Structure formats: structure tokens, C-alpha cells
Amino acid sequence: MDKSTLQKYDVAGPRYTSYPTAPQWSGDVSADIYASILDAFGRNDKTLSFYVHIPFCEQLCYFCACNKVIRPKDEGVGDEFLDYLFKEIDLVAGQLQRRKLIRQLHWGGGTPTYLSEAQIEKLFFKIQSVFDIDFNEEIAIEIDPRTVTQNKLKVLRRLGFNRISMGVQDFDEKVQDDINRIQPYTQVSRVHQWCRDLKFESVNYDLIYGLPYQTRETFKKTMDLVVGLRPDRIALYSFAYVPWLSKPQNKFNLGAIAMHDEKLDIFIQSRANLLENGYQAIAMDHFALTSDALALAFNEGTLHRNFMGYTLKPADEYIGVGPSAIGFLENTYFQNTKILPEYYELTAQGRLPIERGKQLNQDDQIRLWVINSLMCQFQVDKQRFFDKFGLMFEDYFLEEAKHIHDCTQDGLIEENSRYIQVTDLGKIFIRNVCMGFDLYLKVKNGRQRFSRTV
Prior knowledge:
17 helices; nine-stranded mixed sheet; 22% strand; single chain; alpha/beta; 454 residues; 40% helix
């Protein structure tokens, strides 16, 4: 790869956990619209994925741009939160007016294991009281290795959680100190062994490249340690430098952040390390052992992507509860208010705490399908496109022909009469490939600010 290609595609762009992306959502999608769609969803036989957002963390990590609330460990904080969360769950279940089958359950945050063992059990039993849970499918939770205990993991496993995801980021001491996340290898190794002893079916690590003071040499040491522990899945994320969204990132020394070709070198080296040690590159930033269910789903063409990350998509739609949580029902996105006091106030009033959303038109649905195909299968099957929409791909995307041609010329994709196939080089720049099919990027407005693609 020459530097001119790198410079051409090192631009700001979406990560496509949704399409249309969140900057296009608005308050036009109200709680009343959400209630009516929940009502309709309750009258069909579709199954669901269920996401719970628990916003609390005990300590601020400077790199993190997630929706979180920093609170010292206090069971009173968790008890208060659960009171309001249960109100929302009751509102959702009451609108559905029937017990729905949850075929994928995911707790994220924040740090879900901020809750005590008793609070975790209480929340799990609350969900079970109004929904049916398929324990043969994925029941996942995000944990913090710095604060989770062996007993808490035992409680999670007994309840039925079968997948653990933990943030690792980097094992280098200087990097950890700068991002305010001190997490030694020995600590992660100990938690990892607890998970193996408890026979969790899948253990996932989140790593980040491009953090301050990372170099190829230091991050290789981290990757060697990670490969030695052999988690089932690894998410190798590019550091999203978005100081306009995350003020703590303004603390970083810009001169210490790996940029452009140096950052890409770190990724390519890490990717090669994983591929040489039994991992498969299954999608953007994600790797899995070839025996893992996510790798099998990728190879079978059934991988899916949403706000919970890459998933097996065992369910038709998904519902999110908790502050900032996102759902997708009947071709409509919904997002709860992000501000905790507002969330408490709305739920206390018996109102669904919806802040914004987006109802997809026909063009949105078509482009969502194409972008998901590129992000999850690294290809677009034109015959499947025709079978689904009754449209010829080349005719519908006539205005995108130049983008397709340019991506072909630059070696990002190969195209024939049946497929658009992403190359190995294109997999690195998959966000850029998708951007050419994003209609909203053609309309420049001040709301669209994204991290860089490299």
C-alpha cells in the first residue's frame, strides 16, 4: 500500500453501527411513536434481542467516549438506578402486552458489574419476570477486570450468562497511566482463568490501537500476551479521537498519539500476529478463533452488525433499556435520553424515555442492506439484492458508479456482474468503501463529525 492511498482514505467517517447514522436521527421519533410500534411488535411472533445499558463506572478512563456516569462504588447508587430501570422495563412490557422471547441478551455500559451480586440477580430475575429467555443463545455481559470478583463471575455463570467481554486496551504501563486505566497483565490473566474455570462459552477482549505512547514495539508485546491467553474473540478497535464528544481526551498529548501510517502499521502488524496464531479476520476490527460461533457465522454469511457489535443475529429486532440505550423495531431506530436525571424523571412519570430516533424510508433500507453486507460479509451479492428489492444493483446505484470505479482502481474492491468483493486492502478501509453508499454524507451539515477511518 502506497502512502498516497493511505492519505486519500484517511478521512473522517462513520463506523456504521447503524444506517442512517446517529447524526441523522431527530426528536421527530417520539415516545408515542415508540409506544405504537411496541404495540404492533407485541402482536406479531417476532423474537428479540434485548440490551440493557448500565451507565456507572468507578473511575474515568480518559480514552472512553461511551455514555457513562462516574460514581465511587456504592450499592445505593445501584439500587436507585434499578428502581427506575424496572419502571422502564414495565413500561415496555406493558406496551407489548405479551411475553416475548429474548434470543440474545446483552448487558453493556459503563460497567454492568458495577452492580453487586444481589443487584445483578435482581435485574436478571426482573427481565425473566416479563420475558422468556432462550438460554441456548448468547447471553453476554461486559466486565471490568479491575473490579470484577470471582464470586461475581460465579453468580453470572449460574444465572446463565455464557459470554464475557472485557476491556483490555493495552498492557503497556506508560499507555495505561496516560489513559488512566491501570490494569496489569496479571490481573487480566487471573480474571481470564476464572472465566475458563467457570466454562463461559466465549471470552472476548477489547483492544485499542492508536492510543497515546503506543508504538509498534510496545503494542506487539501486548498482542503477544493476548495471544498467549487465547481469548475466543478479539475486537481490535482504532482509537476514536473525538474530543468534541469526550472532553477527557483533551488531556492527551497530541504528539504522543500514533497517527496515519504509524497507526496503520500497528494495526497491520497486530492483524498478522492474530492470523498467524489461529484467529480469523471476520469483519471490521474483529477476529475470532476459527472454532468460535462468530467465525462460523461469518463463513456462513449470517453475521450481523448493530449497536451491540457484531452478532449472530438470532432475533428479528432489538429493544434497548437504560439511559442512551438504542432499539430497532419495524425499520425504526429509537434512543433513550442520555442524561441520567432526565431518564429518572421521565420513567418516574410513567413515560418511555425516548429522546430521538429515525424511521427508515425505502432508500434507507436498501442502503442499510448494502452497507451491512459490506461490513459483515465483505461483499455485495447483486442477485440477492435483486431478489430482495426487485431492483438491478447497477441501475439503482448509478450515481455511485464513480465511487465503485475508484475503489476498484485503488484495489479496495473487485467487481463483476454478480458480486462486489472487498479485497484484503479494502477490508482495512471498509468504512471508506461503505461511505460511498451513504446518501447522507453527500449533504454536508454541521452535525456530522466522526472519528478518522485510519
